[in-house]
């Protein structure tokens, strides 16, 4: 983060800087007191910077510079840009949007291709052994394949990229809010996210690949937008325009939308998902580019799917990419049906909020296990894999054999990996309906639940058992060290209880059970994720049934309203549990009782416009601040006044260039002629410049450097008496990293302090004022 302190409040380092007696009391990156994160061990000391859980790994976090940093280098670069360079910049933005859509669509297709073929081989092997009545061999083959795939996925996450574990949507959402963490969007994370997701979904876990696809799209966008990686020697100089957080944020927004479009084949839904759930800042220009990106994804997917219809893609045929064809006949409904929809919405809200509560408890428990190291992460994944295999293979034995429907005796029971009529242990002309749901890929299970061929294909007891199993397995599976999404478990559970309600109301309802399954899935999605518009469009796009629009809207609104009475959405809960300092779009009620100066804590470290090199080096060495106020002092001005803010990264570049002066004079014009704006560009995935990389002699330490060329001379400032609520809204809406607090009365130092996102966090504010009621 930008300036915050560790939990070791007793550490004190004295330093005498020009113009102030500055006292560093364990000051760290954010200028505020560190706090215990919800899922972090109690005995862990935060002595370097704020830490949070990213994926299944604990790591330090920083803020991103979304604000345009208007220093002399920026102004000079902007004035000197030629018309051809401006056109090149505009062209590159659209070209990168196209490449993001192309790459994400290709990865989404290969993801489905891998899952369908690997899972298809496993299910065919199990089915052939079951036909030969080799039940024990079938179980060990089924469980063994699942265990091998699960171990592979867990090993990738545990040893190569711990940040790839989980959904990835909370991390992407936090990044777009202005929070960065090491390796969150690294190439290694992208690699593990792709292959770990394939292995995890094919292993039979109750997880989806939709959340990981969002993270994958964001990683692809980040890799393309920063011109490659210096660490892996993959860089492109012509992408120098994008070496800033602001442009990368827009590209990653496009990548997140492309991920949803690739997962659901829903381009409009992807745009709305980015708008409603992922992005914290939005504008019309970004809407156009995001829509263009998802359109490219849709074209790529359609083209590749058509190539596979001839059977050249192995076991991947019409299935794989989620496209559930719900009955498209006339949708007629009565008052009873509307009451049933209301009931589904209420049930979905209650079950969704309970699901979020239980996921919270499970994540807190798993964090204690994951902290012990990679071996324990893998053992936890293996234990859940064995449990999932036992449920998938054992529960169908509780289901009775059902005679095949009249007229399709030749196709029932069907032989193959994906079927609605699996024989399992049943005699000829009979099928096991529960095995058709459990011994299938998750996508095919959803298709079977959404089907409207016959109302009696699944018994009421089968639907009840399947709902309980999926509900529980989805809760205990999320949080293990594999890439895992929440969309599919929620859709499966919601579709099962929706179809169950449809079976119970069959005699009095005009809607068929397939439509009830869709409404049940919508209600559970609304109850867990608390999205409305994007979920509505995604469901309509993947089911191809616009006639259900009014009922889907109604059930989503009801389920979200009911669930909001109990807790927050699952992604918001996970963001908080991971310790990510997310800035909400509204201020907390108690903030109206405080002003800006009330939360500015600790002594301030500032520099003069022309400062001694040794003073700057000492401040950078002893603190983790990322922003330092620069003060104009006599003899350069009549009295002290705020010049602006200088970033840590810019100070390091300036010191490394050794453009010093032996005299304490201004010479900014010389620095502007000897340096270029791109020298101060944000480092990509490679390691940026650190204080340890500087090699300064004792003579250079006594020299001076002019900070004006790298100082943002137009920082956002607020009076110390401004309401903290207004300051929080201003900070969030403008996407700031630093907000200067200036005195209201003259005759005082020109700056009171700097507000960063940590200063607005409830843990920090309520820690300073424990007597305040959080609800008032």
TrEMBL record:
GO cellular component: chloride channel complex; plant-type vacuole membrane
PROSITE patterns reported in the protein's UniProt record: CBS
Gene Ontology MF terms: voltage-gated chloride channel activity
Keywords per UniProt: CBS domain, Chloride, Chloride channel, Ion channel, Ion transport, Membrane, Repeat, Transmembrane, Transmembrane helix, Transport, Voltage-gated channel
CBS domain mapped to chain residues: 710-774
The keyword Transport appears for this protein: yes
Location relative to the cell: Membrane
Pfam families, A to Z: CBS, Voltage_CLC
Coarse class of the protein's main subcellular location: membrane
Membrane topology: Multi-pass membrane protein
Parts of the chain that traverse the membrane: 91-115, 135-161, 182-207, 251-275, 281-301, 338-358, 378-398, 463-492, 504-525, 531-558
SMART domains referenced in this protein's UniProt entry, alphabetically: CBS
Homology family: Belongs to the chloride channel (TC 2.A.49) family.
Name assigned to this protein: Chloride channel protein
């Amino acid at each position: 983060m930008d300036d915050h302190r560790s939990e070791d409040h007793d550490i004190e380092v004295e330093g005498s800087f020009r113009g102030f007696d500055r006292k560093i009391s364990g000051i760290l990156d954010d200028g505020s007191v560190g706090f215990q994160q919800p899922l972090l061990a109690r005995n862990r000391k935060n002595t370097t910077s704020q830490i949070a859980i990213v994926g299944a790994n604990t790591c330090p976090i920083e803020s991103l510079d979304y604000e345009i940093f208007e220093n002399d280098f920026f102004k000079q670069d902007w004035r000197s840009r030629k018309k051809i360079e401006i056109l090149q910049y505009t062209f590159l933005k659209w070209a990168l949007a196209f490449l993001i859509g192309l790459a994400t669509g290709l990865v989404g297709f290969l993801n489905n291709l891998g899952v369908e073929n690997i899972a298809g081989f496993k299910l065919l092997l199990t089915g052939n052994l079951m036909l030969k009545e080799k039940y024990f061999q079938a179980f060990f083959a089924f469980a063994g394949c699942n265990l091998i795939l699960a171990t592979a996925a867990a090993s990738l996450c545990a040893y190569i990229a711990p940040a790839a574990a989980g959904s990835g949507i909370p991390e992407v959402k936090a990044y777009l809010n202005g929070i960065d963490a090491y390796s969150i969007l690294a190439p290694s994370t992208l690699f593990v996210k792709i292959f770990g997701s394939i292995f995890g979904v094919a292993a039979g876990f109750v997880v989806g690949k939709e959340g990981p696809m969002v993270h994958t799209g964001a990683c692809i966008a980040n890799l393309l937008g920063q011109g490659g990686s210096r660490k892996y020697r993959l860089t492109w100089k012509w992408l120098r325009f994008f070496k800033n957080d602001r442009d990368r944020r827009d590209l990653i927004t496009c990548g997140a939308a492309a991920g949803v479009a690739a997962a659901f084949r829903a381009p409009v839904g992807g745009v709305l998902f980015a708008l409603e759930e992922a992005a914290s800042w939005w504008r019309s220009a970004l809407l156009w580019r995001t829509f263009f990106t998802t359109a490219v994804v849709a074209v790529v997917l359609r083209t590749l799917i058509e190539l596979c219809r001839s059977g050249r893609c192995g076991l991947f045929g019409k299935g794989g990419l989620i496209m559930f064809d719900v009955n498209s006949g006339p949708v007629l409904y009565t008052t009873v049906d509307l009451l049933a929809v209301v009931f589904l919405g209420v049930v979905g809200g209650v079950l969704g909020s309970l699901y979020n509560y239980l996921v919270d408890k499970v994540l807190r428990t798993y964090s204690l296990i994951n902290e012990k190291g990679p071996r324990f992460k893998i053992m936890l994944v293996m234990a859940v894999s064995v449990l999932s295999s036992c449920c998938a293979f054992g529960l169908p034995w509780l289901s009775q054999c059902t005679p095949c429907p009249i007229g399709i005796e030749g196709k029932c029971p069907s032989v193959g990996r994906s079927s609605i009529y699996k024989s399992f242990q049943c005699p000829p002309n009979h099928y096991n309906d529960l095995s058709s749901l459990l011994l299938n890929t998750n996508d095919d299970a959803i298709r079977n639940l959404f089907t409207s061929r016959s109302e009696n294909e699944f018994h009421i007891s089968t639907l009840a058992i399947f709902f309980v199993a999926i509900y529980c397995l989805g809760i205990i599976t999320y949080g293990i060290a594999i890439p895992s999404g929440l969309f599919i478990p929620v859709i499966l559970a919601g579709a099962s209880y929706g179809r169950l309600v449809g079976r119970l109301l069959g005699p009095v309802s005009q809607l068929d059970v397939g439509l009830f399954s869709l409404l049940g899935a919508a209600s559970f999605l609304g109850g867990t994720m608390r999205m409305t518009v994007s979920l509505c469009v995604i469901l309509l796009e993947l089911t191809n049934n616009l006639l259900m629009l009014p009922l889907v809207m109604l059930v989503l609104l009801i389920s979200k309203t009911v669930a909001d009475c109990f807790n927050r959405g699952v992604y918001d809960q996970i963001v908080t549990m991971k310790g990510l300092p997310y800035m909400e779009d509204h201020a907390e009620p108690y903030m109206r009782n405080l002003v800006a100066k009330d939360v500015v804590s600790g002594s301030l470290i500032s520099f003069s416009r022309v400062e001694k090199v040794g003073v700057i080096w000492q401040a950078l060495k002893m603190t983790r601040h990322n922003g330092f106020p620069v003060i104009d002092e006599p003899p350069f001005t009549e009295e002290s006044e705020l010049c602006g803010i200088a970033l840590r990264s810019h100070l390091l570049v300036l010191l490394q260039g050794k453009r010093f002066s032996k005299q304490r004079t201004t010479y900014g014009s010389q620095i502007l002629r000897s340096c270029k704006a791109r020298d101060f560009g944000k480092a990509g995935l490679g390691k940026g410049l650190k204080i340890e990389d500087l090699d300064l002699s004792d003579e250079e330490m006594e020299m001076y450097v002019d900070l004006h060329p790298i100082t943002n001379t137009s920082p956002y400032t607020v009076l110390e008496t401004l309401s903290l609520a207004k300051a929080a809204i201003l900070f969030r809406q403008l996407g700031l990293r630093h907000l200067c607090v200036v005195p209201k009365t003259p005759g005082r130092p020109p700056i009171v302090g700097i507000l960063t996102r940590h200063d607005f966090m409830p843990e920090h504010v309520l820690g300073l004022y424990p007597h305040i009621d959080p609800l008032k």
